[in-house]
Write a structure and sequence with these properties.
heterotetramer; A alpha/beta; B alpha/beta; C alpha+beta; D alpha/beta; C: alpha+beta; Ribosomal Protein S5, domain 2; 4-stranded mixed sheet; 2 helices; 4 strands; 36% helix; D: alpha/beta; Rossmann fold; 5-stranded parallel sheet; 12 helices; globular
Chain lengths: 306, 505, 94, 357
């Protein structure tokens, strides 16, 4: 039986996509410090290479290169002939998280949940430990986001994919030009994620060389409350992490909030105050999040590496 | 009567041992052709003949054109046609473009080589043994100047390729068509060679100032169609890298420079060429602006990236022994703060002062680095020579913070090894290793480790990185060699620090 | 597992390997590698072990290695053999 | 290289890999033709597609062609010569060939490209001063030769004949008969390419049936053709019907393979060939045969070459092209005087109602 660490304890700002057919990337991308790496068996793998990519991903998951790293694998959609084989290939190799694309309703998640249960039994994994990340890429997926997000205890996150969603909405997605067409979908999956207490990932930004546009979009989704974003190139990791890093001032204040809370608890005070203002539980929780984020971002109060 | 005869007493005791004036030498100044013919000869063959080059002599070259050098093979062809054999080929470095030297070795034209490094087929053939009658002497850039100063390496003829010079031999690398920029390595040859032959593409009007190679060191001048192809000085690597691994290593290396203890106003730095090194320079510019720190000077091979920092006012002076790209080459002309240093001034341990001794920070690379931080930049782990000693051990000896950057794994070949195949730079001169898998600090430098840790930089150990590499790659089999010594590695002071043995076939 | 048809898996890109299999009455394995000096023996061991695990006792197997890590070589051998045998993988045995 | 360094890091080459379909992309093909010309190469008519590398502005930097199972017509602009781009082009060609069911490929190129192709999994079969032929498996030729060796016949003097037999005539039969009379055993190879008026299977059948009438029994072995003998791979010009400088180089590869691989496997000591008054390509082939089989300093025993004068009927040499002309003009009576019974029967079936061509 293989036990897995709960993904909720980890930072999850960045999810780096890697084509499951690319041997060089599967051999090297662990060094870039993405919070999650996602091996893709879906869009980036041609139909011709589905079989060999599955084998490559299976072997990669079992290899010492990826030992101890919780890897996400994007399988092909449920209604494709590849789904079952993909799932078996990755669960038999002990995958941590399965990203299911094209999710339109909660039934799909329950189906995946059941399949995972069967395969976990078959291959000796601890039942229920394989987590699910649902990607919604359609109007119905967005509308059903809450049901999807709460459909299984395996759910660790929900993600938006813009290309198909925009087409479904009779529009197009051009991140550099405008993001208003994604506004509703972003809000919808965010609400679903917060209701379900799971992570929420934004769309990819395809133009690797447009750092400015990328950062503009990152600023928008950070403000909205996203946990992170799907990435298509390692070069996007550092700018993303920097953008998500709290400022030294924010970190300092967070430490003071936590210290005040600890002090209040110690002396048995029910009410916590800092600088004459009341601090309630959500503020304390937010302060803990900021400190965690600062720790993974390398930010120190006394101005260290940024 | 010209009025000078009879003025000097022939028997004055006071003049004992002095030679009386015997009349002026016939003047060439009036005759333009005669003036020109003093040095300018019609062909390489004529230059070789007039130089008196004979069997067993030493000929020397510079490698400022790197992969674009066209001179060495031209000269060897002429030398062979003249029936001269058994030469020592002393180039400041040899590159992949010199594969045809193999034939000259086989035919007995070349029998000894002094160089900073080798690559391509020449390197592979020599590494397999049985080709060169005597092992290659591999020296550093500073070490070459020292070998010349000591007299061990004393070229009979230096053939120095320049894009243009005047008829007296005033030359620089910044005029004419094929500009290579600095002529820092060539300056040593011009200083020590018995006969200096400038091979130029063009003779321009006197005086071709500012001259780098000066007329008083030049014996002969020969015009050829091409001496080098400057577009191949930095083949493929002129633009900033987009390779994410290079960028990752560069960012970490920049963190180390920023927090390693020498990032203060007026500091000095050398970064080298290649994707990661160029990226370090770019990142460093951002950090300097953010922190309000300016560098006093930068040394070594100068790149366009470094020129950009200079022009933004972030680096005060550029001391250029070798221009790594055309931007650097042209900057020499327009930026008064960008000046040339000779290999001797740059790095020679025999010089009365060498710039490396004033250097604060150097970024270096490695083909292999062992658990004792010893570095190999000459041989691959398959035992074949494929790199160059360069200024590695010179700068490592001088600089106060020596940062080696390298990917931990190059297509399954771990960079960290138990024992380097060939020792170029002793580990006691290396402070920090930056890889894509993490940063580690030489245990001999606890202060550096503390500073990095205090800044929040995660520091691991070289043993941990080594273990990780083995876990991923498997353990590579040690290279099998024969007893034949094909290379002698000279440390910068001229001592022998290691030997390269032939790879068993 | 018996190789019925010619098949290929993998690529010639750096860090990958190209494996080619053909039907034959004997087992022949040819390996060339850019890291032959350091890892030739280990690669041959991995290939033989994978063929053994897949029950391949005859066929012509050629491996063109471009510095692939062990897991890549395993996957490429599996891929070529399964394609050549027109078979589906047994995930428990791989 | 670097002053302080000794190392350079490879940069991305920045090329985009694409395809030019020779049948559909006239503009792309013209660009390819230009690039080939700049490298001193011609554009072969049988190339179906080219993998191409272009820079960001769309300028063609390198190309690699696929003609059937042969990779050829490789060229690149001076600034991109190197293994990286060739590797990517080759990968694309391998993928495209694989989609068409071709996994066993040959490469026909200049000797200077040999090392690069060997780095891409190809193995050299034959080399001349102008060309090298390679295949992408270490087992191809060796397996073929091992198969041939099982068909060895005993004897001191062993003959070899290669026929296209398009279709089999009395002329071919005469050549076989003469050769057999001088040898202890004779191996007859029938060209395997489907590039002639009669398909390979038909030509092979007509040879076998036509020779059966000679009653030579076990003395003669008729081999189906292979990729290693007068094929598009070993002798492209035979099929391109072209008369340029490559004619000799290409024949040299074919003949070298015959001498170094095929003949030793079967113990062939003598090669027989008809005199060739009509086809210039075949005539050139015969002329080179003597050099490559009997004289060239190769690592294989020399083979004696015998030119056998053509059989004449009605005062004119019998040839397959004469038969095809007779067939085209509907003169079966004339054809009947040129071909053995099985060939005639086949030709009659072609001109019978419902099979008219």
């Amino acid at each position: 039986m293989k036990a897995k660490k709960s993904p909720a304890e980890r930072p999850s700002r960045s999810m780096l996509f890697v084509p499951g057919s690319n041997a060089a990337w599967l051999s090297t991308v662990q060094v870039y410090g993405a919070d999650y790496v996602m091996f893709d068996l879906e869009d980036s793998v041609s139909v011709r290479e589905k079989d060999t990519a599955r084998l490559l991903v299976h072997e990669a998951l079992k290899s010492p290169v990826w030992a101890g790293v919780p890897v996400v694998v994007r399988v092909n959609a449920i209604n494709t002939p590849f789904f079952r084989d993909d799932l078996e290939a990755v669960v038999s190799a002990g995958v941590a998280i399965v990203r299911l694309p094209m999710v339109t309703d909660a039934q799909m998640i329950r189906h995946l949940d059941a399949e995972l249960g069967v395969l976990e039994g078959k291959y000796g994994s601890v039942p229920g430990t394989t987590r699910i990340l649902a990607a919604v890429e359609s109007a119905s997926g967005v509308v059903n986001a809450v049901a999807i997000a709460t459909a299984s205890p395996r759910m660790m996150g929900i993600a938006l994919a813009a290309y198909d969603y925009a087409m479904d909405m009779h529009t197009t997605h051009d991140a550099a030009a405008d993001e208003s067409q994604l506004f509703f979908a972003r809000c919808a999956i965010l609400h679903a994620a917060r209701v379900a207490k799971i992570h929420c990932y934004d769309v990819i930004y395809a133009d690797v060389n447009d750092t400015e546009g990328f950062l503009r979009e990152v600023a928008v989704i950070k403000k909205l409350g996203f946990d992170g974003k799907s990435l298509v190139n390692p070069r996007q990791i550092e700018p993303l992490h920097n953008a998500f890093a709290p400022t030294p001032e924010e970190v300092e204040r967070a430490h003071r909030v936590v210290a005040a809370a600890v002090e209040a608890e110690k002396v048995g005070m029910g009410v916590v105050a800092l600088d004459g203002k009341m601090i309630d539980a959500p503020i304390i929780a937010a302060a803990h999040r900021t400190i965690r984020l600062a720790q993974v971002s390398g930010v120190q109060v006394a101005g260290g590496v940024r | 009567m010209s009025g000078w005869q009879g003025r000097v007493p022939t028997d004055a005791v006071e003049l004992a041992g002095l030679v009386p004036f015997a009349g002026p030498a016939p003047s060439t100044q009036a005759d333009k052709d005669a003036r020109r013919a003093r040095k300018v000869v019609g062909s390489l063959t004529e230059a070789i003949s007039r130089s008196g080059l004979g069997d067993g002599d030493t000929i020397s070259f510079h490698h400022h054109f790197r992969e674009g050098d066209l001179l060495i093979l031209q000269v060897l062809a002429e030398v062979e046609a003249l029936g001269i054999r058994g030469l020592t080929l002393a180039s400041s470095s040899l590159n992949a473009c010199h594969g045809d030297v193999v034939g000259y070795i086989e035919r007995g034209v070349v029998s000894r080589i002094y160089t900073s490094g080798m690559r391509g087929t020449l390197a592979a053939r020599i590494s397999r043994g049985g080709l060169l009658p005597h092992p290659v002497q591999v020296h550093s850039h500073g070490g070459r100047a020292a070998l010349m100063a000591s007299g061990e390496l004393r070229p009979k003829v230096a053939f120095l390729g320049v894009s243009a010079c005047d008829e007296f031999g005033n030359a620089n690398g910044t005029s004419g068509a094929s500009r290579c920029g600095s002529l820092g390595y060539a300056l040593v040859d011009a200083m020590f060679a018995e006969t200096v032959v400038l091979v130029t593409e063009q003779v321009v009007a006197f005086p071709n100032t500012p001259a780098v190679i000066r007329q008083n060191r030049v014996d002969l001048i020969v015009v050829v169609e091409r001496v080098g192809d400057p577009s191949r000085i930095n083949v493929g690597a002129t633009r900033t890298t987009t390779n994410p691994r290079d960028l990752l290593v560069a960012r970490r290396a920049t963190d180390v420079v920023e927090h390693g203890g020498f990032f203060v106003d007026g500091f000095s730095i050398q970064t080298g060429s290649g994707g990661a090194a160029t990226a370090v320079t770019d990142y460093l510019g951002e950090r300097m602006e953010r922190r309000g720190v300016k560098a006093g000077w930068a040394l070594g091979g100068i790149t366009g990236s470094m020129v950009a920092l200079h022009e933004r006012g972030l680096v005060g002076r550029l001391l250029d022994v070798q221009s790594f790209d055309l931007v650097a080459a042209s900057s020499l002309e327009r930026n008064p703060g960008h000046t040339i240093v000779s290999a001797s001034e740059y790095a020679s341990p025999a010089a009365k002062a060498a710039c490396v001794d004033e250097l604060d920070v150097v970024i270096l690379s490695a083909l292999e680095i062992d658990l004792d931080y010893n570095v190999n930049v000459l041989t691959g782990s398959d035992g074949l020579m494929m790199g160059a000693s360069g200024g590695h051990c010179d700068t490592a000896a001088g600089a106060k913070l020596v940062v080696v950057v390298a990917p931990l794994i190059r297509t399954r070949i771990p960079t960290i090894v138990e024992r380097v195949t060939t020792l170029i730079t002793p580990g006691s001169n290396v402070d920090v290793l930056v890889t894509d898998y993490g940063v580690c600090v030489n245990p001999r430098r606890p202060a550096v480790a503390e500073r990095l840790a205090a800044a929040g930089i995660k520091v691991t150990t070289i043993e941990a990185l080594f273990a990780r590499a083995l876990e991923i790659c498997g353990r590579p089999r040690a290279v099998e060699t024969t007893d034949e010594i094909v290379g002698v590695v000279r440390y910068r002071d001229g001592s022998v620090i290691d030997v390269v043995r032939a790879v068993a076939s | 597992m018996r190789i019925e048809v010619d098949a290929v898996a993998g690529t010639l890109e750096s860090s990958d390997a190209l494996v080619r299999v053909s039907p034959a009455e004997e087992l022949r394995i040819e390996v060339t590698s850019t890291v032959e000096a350091q890892f030739g023996a280990e690669i041959r061991r991995t290939v033989a072990e994978q063929l053994d695990r897949l029950g391949v006792t005859e066929g012509l197997i050629s491996v063109q290695d471009k510095g692939a890590l062990d897991f890549v070589i395993r996957a490429r051998v599996q891929g070529a053999v399964l394609r050549g045998a027109q078979a589906r993988p047994d995930w428990r045995k791989l | 290289m670097s002053g302080a360094d000794g190392l350079e890091t490879a940069v991305e080459d920045g090329c985009a890999i694409g395809l030019v379909d020779a049948a559909r992309d006239a503009r792309g093909l013209e660009q390819v033709r230009g690039l080939l010309k700049a490298s001193g190469l011609g554009l072969d008519a049988d190339v179906e597609l080219f993998a191409t590398a272009r820079d960001a502005s769309g300028r063609l930097l390198a190309c690699l062609g696929l003609a059937g199972d042969v990779v050829k017509c490789a060229a690149s602009a001076p600034e991109v010569r190197g293994e990286g781009v060739t590797a990517r082009l080759m990968q694309r060609i391998l993928d495209e060939a694989s989609d068409r069911g071709r996994t066993h490929l040959f490469a026909f190129t200049r000797p200077g490209n040999r090392a690069i192709l060997e780095g891409l999994g190809f193995h050299a079969l034959a080399v001349t001063d102008d060309a090298v032929l390679l295949e992408n498996t270490p087992f191809g030729l060796s397996s073929y030769v091992a198969g041939l060796a099982r068909l060895r016949r005993p004897g001191r003097r062993i003959g070899g004949v290669v026929l296209n037999a398009n279709p089999f005539t009395f002329g071919h039969r005469y050549l076989v008969e003469r050769a057999a009379s001088e040898c202890d055993a004779l191996h007859v190879f029938v060209v395997g390419e489907d590039a002639s008026a009669f398909d390979a299977a038909t030509r092979l059948r007509l040879v076998r049936d036509g020779i059966a009438g000679l009653d030579l029994g076990e003395q003669v072995v008729v081999h189906p053709g292979s990729r290693y003998i007068v094929s598009r791979a070993t002798f492209p010009n035979y099929f391109l019907a072209r008369e340029d400088a490559r004619a000799s180089a290409a024949a040299g590869l074919d003949l070298q393979l015959f001498r170094t691989a095929i003949a030793p496997a079967l113990g062939i000591t003598d090669r027989f060939v008809g005199t060739e008054p009509l086809s210039p390509v075949t005539a050139a082939y015969n002329a080179e045969m003597r050099w490559w089989l009997a004289e060239a300093p190769l690592d294989a025993p020399p083979i004696a070459v015998h030119e056998v004068a053509r059989l004449e009927v009605d005062g004119e040499a019998v040839s397959a092209s004469r038969v095809r002309q007779g067939l085209a003009s509907g003169d079966l009576d004339a054809v009947a005087r040129l071909v053995p019974g099985p060939t005639l029967a086949h030709l009659r079936s072609l001109v019978s109602p419902g099979h008219r061509r």
